[in-house]
Amino acid sequence: MSTEKSQVDTEKKTNWNKDVSKATTQHEITCKGRQIKYEATVSQILLDSPKDEKVKNCAKMGYTAYLEKNQELRNKPLMFCYNGGPGSASLWLHLGALGPYRIDNLDKTSVANKTSSNLIVNEHTLLDEFDLVFVDPIGTGFSTTKDKESESHFYADMADAHSFAQFIHRFLDQGNHWSRSIYLCGESYGGYRSAFLCKNLIADYGIFPRGLFLVAPYLFYGSIEEIPEHVVARANFMCSFAVTAWYHSRSSLNKSADSAEEAYSQAKEFFFGSYLQKIALMRFSRCSKQVQETTAKMIGISLDVLLEEDDAFNVRSFSKHLLRNETRYPGRLDSRFTMSFPVEYVPKYRDPSLTVLECRMTQLTNCYFRNSLKVTESEPYKHFGKSIASHWKSENFSNSSESALSESLKENPEMKIYATSGYYDLAVSTAGVSFDLDHLQVPEECRKNIVHERFEAGHMMYVEAAILGEMVESAKNHFRLRS
Question: Cβ(44)–Cβ(106) under 8 Å?
Fold first, then answer.
């Protein structure tokens, strides 16, 4: 019996290198009056361990590539796109924002009206200006490892960035794409990944990205992680709490602000003024009565609650108490969405915005891969690797991602950054994105290449078609790729 098992294991290892799935289909869409013919390929690329150079071909990173068929346009810039998590596949940017097709009716109004979702031609796709490659991290999509043991080689900050750099190098090499300009697009944790990925591409492979498209990017640990001693992160999130409270008519800002932008500006003036000056020196409970009361009124939370939780007050606390008298709580990824709970019992947190959007995305994503892209892979497309986050090893060196991105900009001063964020995002605060980009240690001439735009939206601001169109056009203009 042991001999038979040994033979089976040997066969699996032998076939592993050869058994790389691939599905290629031909397509044509009309976008903004222009006909686009493209080839779609869903496949995998073999990767070596990013931690041990002796361990070869231990993983397969899956991707979906859309490449121009028109010979005259075959040298378009190439953009690699990925989501965050850690543990998320690229379906959000792929079928929510930038691919040739997108899933419609994911905006708040459509969801509230229970409008059904369908796959439609994406009039805002980047495919008219870029060839696109949507990459799924190991453990998501169709990306997998040779064995369980190999997973540990990839589930860590630095290893993740190295594996993406290796993938991009091999993709360029296998397809002979070396003459292309390279761009990166990352959402959420994908922003943190991009900081290290840029550095790895330059240092290890001599690949210099021309631009970064950062969507609601988690960038630097110290300004986004909710830890009592991270006072800047607390001020950043307080601005988001105030705009959320304003939206739900719970803030003192409702008397003075007529828009989310006005509410944000007024909140930032206070929280980066009197509030931050005080909590940088003392606990919230020891601040002046004026600072305490202004904070409570601006974010719509009882002062008694704030004093009781003191410096431990965070997103979960805010969500729990803001609409408690209505037995509802706001979402983390989009605080305009709400979900009901019994007032005497707060259940294990479920994000109302993600709960609604995820169920629509996953079913239609699998339909798209099977029916339109003709994928015959036996396993379903894994939209999220649930065990990845619990096994993830985060180095969290102080400002290490800031240093990596700053160094990359110095070595590659022509690289441009276009970043977006949403006022109602309680996962990555819009004030945090501004703070991080403003504090990059780069020469002044590099700063003209950095643009940050805020939208009246949540984390996935692109689910609203008008916002998607605006951000895509802004990105193309910033990268000087006008239609």
Answer: no
Residues 383 and 435 in one domain: yes
Please list the residues that pair with 119 across neighbouring strands.
103
Q: Is 345 exposed, middle or buried (0-12, 13-18, 19+ CB in 10 A)?
A: exposed
Tell whether 17 is covered by a domain.
Answer: no
d(CA 402, CA 423): 23
In whole angstroms, what is the distance from residue 219 CA to residue 420 CA?
12
Question: Which tens digits make up the pLDDT trace of 69-110?
Answer: 876 667 899 999 999 989 999 999 999 999 999 999 888 888
Q: How far is 121 from 371, CA to CA, in rounded Å? A: 15
At 433, list the tokens: 């994105």
My answer on whether 138 and 180 are in the same domain is yes
pLDDT digits (tens, 9 = 90+) for 170-192: 999 999 999 999 999 999 999 99
Q: How many domains does the chain have?
A: 2
**pTM listed for this prediction:** 0.92
CA–CA dist 317, 426 (Å, integer): 12
Length of the chain: 483
Of 224, 240, 270, residue with least CA distance to 458: 240
Q: What distance lies between CA 164 and its chain's CA centroid?
A: 15
Domain's final residue, options 316, 351, 386: 351
Domain boundary among 351, 372, 396: 351
Beta strands, E only, 244-386: 328-330, 338-340
- 280 is in which domain, residue-wise? 230-351
| Owner of token pair 């969290």 | 396
- Are 302 and 446 in a shared domain? no
Asked whether 27 and 39 are in contact (CB, 8 A), the reply is yes
Tell me which residue of 139, 162, 209 sits closest to 382, measured CA to CA: 139
User: Could you give the CA distance from residue 82 to residue 219 in angstroms, rounded to a whole number?
Assistant: 15
Using CA atoms, how far apart are residues 332 and 427, in angstroms rounded to an integer?
6
Chain centroid to Cα 429, Å, comes to: 13
Beta carbons of 412 and 208 less than 8 angstroms apart: yes
- HEC secondary structure over 290-312: HHHHHHHHHHCCCHHHHHHHHHH
